[in-house]
Amino acid sequence: EPEVTQTPSHQVTQMGQEVILRCVPISNHLYFYWYRQILGQKVEFLVSFYNNEISEKSEIFDDQFSVERPDGSNFTLKIRSTKLEDSAMYFCASSVEGSNQPQHFGDGTRLSIL
Amino acid sequence: GESVGLHLPTLSVQEGDNSIINCAYSNSASDYFIWYKQESGKGPQFIIDIRSNMDKRQGQRVTVLLNKTVKHLSLQIAATQPGDSAVYFCAEISGGSQGNLIFGKGTKLSVKP
């Protein structure tokens, strides 16, 4: 069964540094998402991406964050000038269609900011 | 306040019993709902979904019930097994959204052998 894959599984970064989290969505999916989950809390929406542009973004997704689909398979989340509070699990998801089809999630990248 | 929430943070059941996990939502504009299962160290795994034009949907050992009158969603797991132990999240998408999933806090299901 096709699945969403994310790399790395764990990223440790010094505060103030930039990180890039990578995702390979399911191949025939057209909608891509990033979510984050702070330890012990619920999953929070960050951004959705369709047709090479951002469709929606949350208040969390400020100028520190950016997304990109650099080629036909990868979908990346860049976090500039990381802060301690950026420490969380970051999940990538994809779906065939935006609002009426289930989103399928990767196993996440654990981001630890020191 | 949050749009989606859960009544019980933990649920403990005996193996073989049926489990019912509840979820309340407050956004009457939501028209698509999904239940996810999250095991330790993994991402949310799709279990079952339901659209707002339905009241009930059944899958393999799972049933989702939607009561739009009281904005309530439930997940029923038949003959619960140890492998069902996980955190279960309900999530909703509002009509007109491009897929912004709003998650509840989660219910931790523990299955006793």
Q: What is the third-level CATH name, the topology of chain B?
A: Immunoglobulin-like
CATH class of chain B: Mainly Beta
Q: How much is the radius of gyration of chain A in Å?
A: 13 Å
Backbone shape of chain A: globular
Query: Which pair of protein chains has the largest interface, and what are the residue counts?
Result: A-B, 28 and 26 residues
Number of domains of chain A: 1
Which stretches of chain B are low in confidence, meaning pLDDT under 50 for 5 or more residues running? none
The SSE string of chain B, one letter per element, is EEEEEEEEEEE
CATH superfamily of chain A: Immunoglobulins
Might you state the CATH topology name of chain A? Immunoglobulin-like
Count of alpha/pi helices of chain A? 0
Major beta sheet of chain A, specifics? 7 strands, mixed
Q: What helical percentage do the residues of chain A reach?
A: under 10%
Task: Count all strands of chain B and give the number.
Answer: 11
Quaternary structure of the protein: heterodimer
Question: In total, how many domains does the architecture of chain B comprise?
Answer: 1
Question: What structural category do the secondary elements of chain A indicate?
Answer: mainly beta
